[in-house]
Every structure is written in structure tokens, then in C-alpha cells.
Amino acid sequence: MANFKNLSIYDTMEKLDIVLYPEPGLREICQPITEMNDDIDKLIDDMFYTMYDAPGIGLAAPQIAVQERLIVVDVSESNNQPIALINPEVVQSAGEITWEEGCLSLPGVYAKVKRPSDILVRGMDREGKQIELEANDLLAVCIQHEIDHLNGTMFIDHLSGLKRSRALQKYRKLTEQPE
Ligand code: ZN
Questions:
Q1: 65 forms bridges with which residues in the sheet?
Q2: Could you report the per-residue pLDDT of 83-118, keeping only the tens digit for each?
Q3: Among 79, 69, 80, 85, CA closest to 126
């Protein structure tokens, strides 16, 4: 929560509702964004606000019920390295890393997922400029996790059948409403 002043319009930011599994929108393929505009710029700020507040290290637009290809991440300890990516795509990947992942749309569930450890991502920044970004380790994990959301994939889909059922069982138990 510390470094909101880095963001352009922090006075007007709004906290958005995070949609929870099994909301069907989390399983949809999101649409590319064709051009930057003020609405998307504001959405990016609101997504950062919502992510820092949660707190989390990444958030994808479908998690706030917007079916568009937009993610925000910040894996720094002091919340001062915000990265917003529009239409992000992994164009190269190498290596391997296993990380215990969690998801703001599956609160309380954590599981080890194996992914490439080094990636090259292509996309558009919030100024509408095409960019390439190299990411390693946690940042690479986080970006891949968020890009998965744009394709309707959740991190539990990377688990074996048994581990996935266990994770979902735990989630159901956690989210069960007491009578
Ligand atoms: Zn997630």
C-alpha cells in the first residue's frame, strides 16, 4: 500500500470487486485491446489499487469481471515496481521453476506449480507502446499466471488430477457458508 503516489491518479482510484472461482468469467478467453484510452488507463490504476489492497502480486482483468487482455503485476517487496501489460504474450521461454502459487480468485488455496523460469514477453504498455520484457523467477511465474487468466486457465489446472481435487476440496471447505 506504500507507494500509490507512483501511480498517476491515485486520488481517484477505486477498489474493484475480485471475482471468485467458480465464476464462469474466469473460464473465458479474453478479447485483445485494440487501443489505449482513458477508461483503460483508469482501469489499470484501479487494478493496481485492488491488487495492492488485497494484497496480491498480480491481477488479470477477468478477475475484476473485465474480459479483456490486460494484466498488472508487482513482485517487489515495497510495491514500487508496477508493471501493466496489455495483450501480453510469452514469445520465448526457457528453464524451469517450481513455485507455490496462490490466486486472489481462489483465496486460501496454495499449490506448487512448475513453469518456465525465464520468459520474454511482448505486449503494449499503458502509453500504448509495443514493448518486450524479460522476466525471470517470481516475476516470470507471476506474469505467466496472469496471462493464463486471459485464456481462462487457473493455476490449479497445472496440477495433477489428485492434487487439483484436493485443492478444490480445501477451497470448498474454506468458502462454505455456515448455516
Ligand atoms: Zn490468479
A1: none
A2: 999 999 999 999 999 999 999 999 999 999 999 999
A3: 85
